[in-house]
Every structure is written in C-alpha cells, then in structure tokens.
Amino acid sequence: MKKIILVGTVACGKTTLCQRIHGMELVYKKTQALEVVNETIDTPGEYLEHRAFLRNLMTTAVDADLVLFLLDATQERFMYSPGQAASFPVQVAGVVTKTDLASETQRRQARELLELSGASPIFEVSSVSGDGINGLLEFLKDEAAQSGTETDNGRFLY
Ligand SMILES: Nc1nc2c(ncn2[C@@H]2O[C@H](COP(=O)(O)OP(=O)(O)OP(=O)(O)O)[C@@H](O)[C@H]2O)c(=O)[nH]1
Ligand SMILES: [Mg+2]
Q1: Does residue 97's CB lie within 6 angstroms of at least one atom of ligand 1?
Q2: Which residues surround ligand 2, an ion (CB under 5 A)?
Q3: Which of 53, 54, 75, 154 sits a CA distance of 20 to 30 A from 69?
Q4: 66: how many CB neighbours lie within 10 A of its CB?
Q5: What's residue 38's pLDDT?
Q6: Cβ neighbours of residue 97 closer than 8 Å, sequence gap 6 or more
Q7: What structural domains and CATH numbers belong to the chain?
Q8: Using a 6 Å cutoff on CB, does residue 100 contact ligand 1?
Q9: Number of C-beta neighbours around residue 106 at 10 A
C-alpha cells in the first residue's frame, strides 16, 4: 500500500479510516500526536485546525507517497483553503467521510469543497458501514504491487 498521511479536522474520522483500511477493529481513541500504523501516518486534527502546526503536516508529508484530505460530510466546518493541496510536496487526494450519516446534499457539498482545496481524485466512504472502502483501497495500492506478485516476505516479483 502507498505510504499515506491522513489530514483533517478533529473527529472527522482519520483514525477510524486508518483502522478500517488496515482491517483492524474500530476502536475510538483520540489521536494526541503523529502516529504511524503500518506505514500510514495518522495526525491529530489539531494539526490542521491550528495554523502553527500546519508546517509540521507539510514536512511530514515529504516522507509520504500521498496525502489524504478528509472531510466529514455531516460537518458545517471547512478548514481547507482553496488550492491548499498545492502547498504539499506530494499528490493530495480527497475523502468524504461518514457517508452513512450524511444526506445526498451533504455528500455533494463535501465533495465540491474538497475539489476546491485542489484534492484529486475524491472518494466517498463510510468507515463504519464499509461503503466506498474497496474503491479507496484499490487506489491506495502501491503501483509496484499492481504490476507484480507479492512474496511471503512482502517483496514483489515481476
Ligand atoms: N457513523 C460514523 N461514524 C464515524 C465514521 N468515521 C468515524 N466515525 C466516528 O467519529 C468519531 C471520531 O472519529 P476518529 O476516527 O477518532 O476521528 P479523528 O479524525 O481521528 O479525530 P482526532 O484524532 O481527534 O483528530 C468516532 O466516534 C468515530 O466512531 C463513519 O464513517 N461513520
Ligand atoms: Mg484520530
């Protein structure tokens, strides 16, 4: 899987998505600091919400293949600036979260806001119901993994 970094406001669903994509049990735990789970970097929502921390996100992203901007479809709050994706050193994709709780209109609005931030492509998922997760997982597959065969020790043969 690509090395990703999860970005988004407090409680938008970063840790839950991280647990879901790695097939772990969904257990609520507030993220207090940067955490690495199977090469996925989970960040505390405060890193996006408090401008003083933003630089940390950008520097951490240097080590990643991909940044995911998450946006909770049920939230009125929007913390990304227009075009913000361009300030990251790697590709930024978008993920609309909590689709199991959101109306069609909320989902569409969240998608449009993520588009405005410059994130592309954009996925819509529910970590709780599993909706949309397979499509996201397909995109997160390492390109090396897509063209090769994984061996027992995690390497790829071509
Ligand atoms: N219904 C529903 N609830 C979700 C979903 N994803 C996350 N939640 C809930 O939203 C709350 C916050 O989720 P977290 O994954 O901890 O959020 P976070 O973005 O990691 O938050 P911080 O660590 O504070 O930055 C928890 O109670 C989750 O169970 C979802 O897809 N559907
Ligand atoms: Mg968290």
Answers
A1: yes
A2: 14-15, 31
A3: 154
A4: 17
A5: 93
A6: 8, 12, 13, 17, 70, 71, 72, 73, 125, 126, 127
A7: 4-157 (3.40.50.300)
A8: yes
A9: 18
